[in-house]
Structure formats: C-alpha cells, structure tokens
Design a protein that fits this description.
By secondary structure, the protein is α+β, with helices and mostly antiparallel strands. Helices cover about 35% and strands about 25% of the residues. It has an eleven-stranded mixed beta sheet with strand order 3-9-10-16-13-12-11-24-27-23-22. It has a five-stranded mixed beta sheet with strand order 18-17-19-20-21, with helices on both faces. The two termini are about 30 Å apart. The structure holds one RNA strand.
Length: about 500
RNA sequence: CGGGACGUAGCGCAGUUUGGUAGCGCGCUUGGUUCGGGACCAAGAGGUCGCGGGUUCAAAUCCCGCCGUCCCGACCA
C-alpha cells in the first residue's frame, strides 16, 4: 500500500481548484481503481468493482421490472456494419480501435504481427453496439408479434479517447446498453422516456445524486439519434456530469440494417428503435458528488460493507472478551441482512483502522472496547453528519439493544440525508440568469454552477458560448424539471430572440 | 499530432548544476513495548538509476538517439 496522506479536519466541499487532485486522492485512498500499464485503460480494484456490482444489481432489477431481458453480442463489429448508418459512423470514426490481423509470427527471434494474416475486412472493437445488434435483429423480427423486442447487454466498450481520467473517461469502460425495437413511434418514444425515468430513479434513490432530466440540443445528440434524453448531475465543484442517456433512434438503424415487420394490416414497415446506457462513469459521479477530504462517502444502498466493527483491547484477557462480543454483534447485524466486516487485524492501531475505513466510505463503524463490555453499550460512529466537521456529532454511545436495532434506521437516515445534502448543494449553486453580463460574472466567480437561461441559439452560437465561457447547454429540461422561479418565457441570452423555455447551461466534465 | 515537465526500491522523492562506494521517508520482515482517532524502539530485506550508444581512469550525473509517463490543446459516456 502507498503512503497515506494525513489530512486534518474534514471539509464537506473541496475547493474547486483542488478538484482533480482531490478526486484522484479519494480513488487512491479508497482503493477503487488505478491506471493500468495499458494507455488510457483503468484497473478497477476489488472495492471499486464491488460498488459497480451493487449498481449493476439495482439497475438490472429495474430493467427486469420494465420487461427487459439480458443478452450478449460480439465485441467485434465488421467495418461495413459500422458504416451503414452514415451519421453514426461519422460520430464514432475518430475514436475507434481496429483489428486488422489475426496472427503473430516469429522473425529472427522477434515476435511480430504476421503481414500475411491481414483480415479481409477490418473489425472495429465496439464503441457501442447498435450496428451489430440491428444486423442481428433483422433475423429476429418478422411480424408485429415479435415486437416489442426489449434487450439489454452488460459489456465493455472501447472509445479511443485522447485524454482520460479514472472512471469518468477511459479508453475501455464497462456499461450496459439497452436496444429495443417497437412497432410504432409512440411506443418507442414512451420507452425512451421510461428508461430515462429508470435512470433518474436510480441516480436519486440509490446513488443519492439529484439529477435534471432533459433533452440534448441537436449538436449534442448521440450519433444517429433523432432525440437524446439525458440526466445531468452536479459535482461538488459546480460542474455538470452527464450520468445517463436514452436515445430515440426513429427508423434510422432499421433502415440501414433493413429491419422490417408485417403489421396487423399485412403491410411491411420499418421498426422504431431506442437505445440507452449508463457506464462505470457513475462510480466517478458517486465519488465526486458525496466524498469529502477524509475520502469516499457511499450511500448505504451502494456500500459493499454497511458496518465495520473495530475491536479495542490492551491485553489477552480483554482481547478474548472483546472479540467474543464483536463476533456476536457481527452475527446479529448479519442476521438483519447487513454486510458486516469485523476488522480483527492485530498490530494496527484502532485509529489507523478508523481512517482506513472512512477513506473506503463504510457508512457505519462500531467500536467495541472493555468500557462497552462493562456498561453493556456500543459506540456507533456514522461516516458523515450534516453538522460539518463535528467528529463528536458523528459518534454516540448507546445501550447494546438500542444500538443494534438502530443501525438499519440510521442507514436509511444517512441515505436520505446524503441525497438532501447533494440537492441543497445543487440548488444553492444554481441560478436564474437573464443577461450575458450576469452570465459572464457568474461563471467568472468561484461559486459557478448551473445557470437557467433562455436560449434560442443554433449550433454555431452554442460553440461561441463554449469558447467564451467554457459553458455548454447541458440539456433542455423536461418541463417539470424547471425550478419554480425558472418557468417564465423570455429572450435568448445571446441572440435576444424570443424563447418559451429556459435551458440548463453549465461547465461540464 | 503540436507546447511543457518527468523517468532512481512496492509508493513518494533527494542526489544530476560542479562525474568519484546507491540515498531518504512511507510501506514490507523479525523481536519487544503499545492499543477508545493515523504508535514507538531495535535489527533486517529490497536497485540493470527507462533503454541503447558515446566521452572518460571513472557516468544516475556530460553528449547523441530511442522508448515511456504525466500536464496543457482538438475528441468524448
């Protein structure tokens, strides 16, 4: 293990300028992931992967509940498949890893790619699977009775990014991608919105990250989509992070892969498509939304370990008694369905264990020592409190029975408070803005965040805003997502043209 | 691919200006004392100084070439 940086008191909000380094420190200290020997790729360590597994389970349950099933499609996409849909191919062209040979050869003791083994057609490592999946669906769909087709796949994809950052942007990442086929446009649109709601529900109720649901502007749409819906969260430096997307693809992919069906009237029609996905980027969102200077903070619903027990003793006699009690407490909590870790490692100071488990984000710690045995009490310490920097406020000694019965309610409370804290932070860092001057001043300041502005600009004008202020239109929010004071009509902040609804502008990851 | 920095023990670094026995902190091993918020003492193990060539009695250090990593730009879940 590497050197542990010694931090003083915890501050809930790290300073924005320290943000990249702070983010990497949290990941390192929590042992979530590290850069690999392969350029741009990430090694997800056991603790980081455990969090991803919990995310997968929660998401998968929701996919199943909405009628979807899982399947698996190939990693390799023939180049000709990828280029069938023109916009799609253009959108991903600059970041494709391509397999061109299938054999190595030893020449003069050196192993090299065998030039004789060139593939007839290059294979692209999937940056996303629309094209290979729609080529497959062609054979699966004949009649309206085959629809809707509701399939999800869990897999890895590769996008050859120039600059990468752990979890947020890596050359290879893990994700799920849903690909559905429908008989009508209305049904496909309904699916697109339904899955956006699934993502929003997951983000808010499991990750405890409040999100804005909205549509992307045409320039920010997924390559090949008619409409891209997204959820946007705010990180602790005020920047926006796109946390999930749901696309309405119309008949674009059905046409390019020739997927048709006979409707009830016996007429041949192209099917209507959707696709939607979230990735390991969500782990990055989790880190950047909740963590503090002591390390990772996890919402209880995603914590691989709910409770860590740290026994405290001075001699063998105390050790025996304390460990016996610790074992009992662990067993009783496990019987409640909680994930419990008894940290009985020897030769490590209890304080060192506290820091280690806090860095890893374990929500609740129970300390058991001789004094607790005497008094029949337990020392319960929560990972965070809404009272900032107050270590005492996080810690309480409770009678044993009361303490054990209180852990689950405490976890529920923490889950709720974590969401509430994030929501209040976001709202505090959001502002309704009406003039370009006010906009400029807001984003020149240290408390910049979300700006609710009227916008009627085109693609070029969006670029202009991006160049001048580093801001982009994150989304055109769904009407019910607008704050109460942002529901007016007005004039575009740049062009002065009339606008019926405000959009969300911010700097973004 | 353009601009900048850096490659020395598992991790973080000093040493390079001015060439002369390979160093420090953390971590690791062993023994002892400790243990309610990051312990201390003692003894140890661990190196092709990124790679290749050159200069020199002598190169981590100077020169040439290559490779790699990180940061800043264009791309992006």
């Amino acid at each position: 293990m590497s050197q542990q940086p010694k931090t003083e008191t915890a501050s809930v909000t790290p300073r924005a300028q320290d943000y990249p380094q702070w983010y990497l420190d949290v990941i390192k200290r929590a042992e979530l992931a590290e850069n690999s020997a392969v350029r741009g790729c990430m090694v997800i360590k056991p603790h980081g992967y455990a969090i991803w597994e919990k995310m997968q389970r929660e998401l998968d349950d929701r996919f199943k509940a909405t009628g979807h099933v899982n399947a698996y499609f190939p990693l390799f996409i023939p180049l000709s498949f990828l280029t069938r849909e023109e916009q799609h191919a253009a959108g991903f062209a600059k970041e494709c890893a391509v397999v061109t040979h299938h054999r190595l050869k030893s020449i003069d003791g050196k192993v090299v790619v065998d030039p004789e083994s060139k593939l007839e057609e290059p294979l692209v490592i999937r940056p996303t699977s629309e094209t290979i999946i729609w080529d497959t669906y062609k054979n699966w769909i004949q009649s309206y009775r085959d629809l809707p087709l509701l399939i999800n796949q869990w897999c890895n994809v590769v996008r050859w990014e120039m600059r990468t950052r752990l979890f947020l942007r890596t050359a290879e990442f893990l994700w799920q991608e849903g690909h559905t086929a429908h008989a009508t446009e209305a049904e496909a649109l309904e699916e697109t919105y339904r899955m956006l709601d699934v993502y929003a529900d997951f983000a808010e109720n499991v990750m405890a990250v409040p999100v804005i649901r909205g549509k992307k502007t045409p320039g920010e749409r997924f390559a090949g989509a008619l409409e891209t819906l997204c959820i946007e969260g705010m990180m602790q430096d005020g920047k926006a992070l796109q946390m999930g997307t749901s696309h309405y693809l119309g008949q674009n992919f059905a046409k390019s892969s020739d997927v048709t069906f006979l409707n009830r009237d016996g007429k041949r029609e192209y099917v209507y498509a959707t696709s939607w996905g979230v990735s390991t980027r969500l782990v990055g969102a989790l880190i950047m939304t909740h963590s503090d200077d002591n390390g990772l903070v996890l919402p209880p619903k995603l914590a691989p370990i709910h409770v860590v027990i740290v026994p405290i003793f001075k001699n063998d006699a105390e050790k025996t008694k304390v460990l016996e009690e610790a074992g009992k407490v662990a067993a009783e909590l496990k019987a409640q369905g909680l994930a419990v870790k008894l940290d009985d490692r020897e030769g490590i100071m209890p304080g060192a264990k506290y820091y280690e488990w806090e860095a890893k984000g374990v929500p609740v710690r129970i300390e058991i020592g001789p004094r607790d045995l005497e008094k029949g009490s337990l020392c319960i310490v929560r990972r965070f409190s809404l009272i900032e920097d107050d270590r005492k406020a996080r810690k309480q000694f409770l009678p044993r029975t009361e303490a054990l019965a209180g852990v689950k309610p405490l976890l529920d409370t923490m889950q709720r408070e974590l969401f509430e804290r994030a929501r209040q932070f976001r709202d505090k860092r959001s502002r309704v803005i009406n003039t370009l001057e006010a906009f400029e001043a807001y984003f020149a300041g240290k408390d910049a965040g979300f700006a609710w502005v009227h916008w009627a600009g085109n693609h070029e004008q969006e670029d202009e805003m991006s160049k001048r202020f580093e801001t982009t239109v994150r989304c055109i929010p769904l009407p019910d997502q607008l704050p109460a004071d942002a529901r007016d009509a007005g004039k575009c902040i740049l062009t002065g043209q009339p606008s019926s609804q405000r959009v969300l502008m911010a700097r973004a990851y």
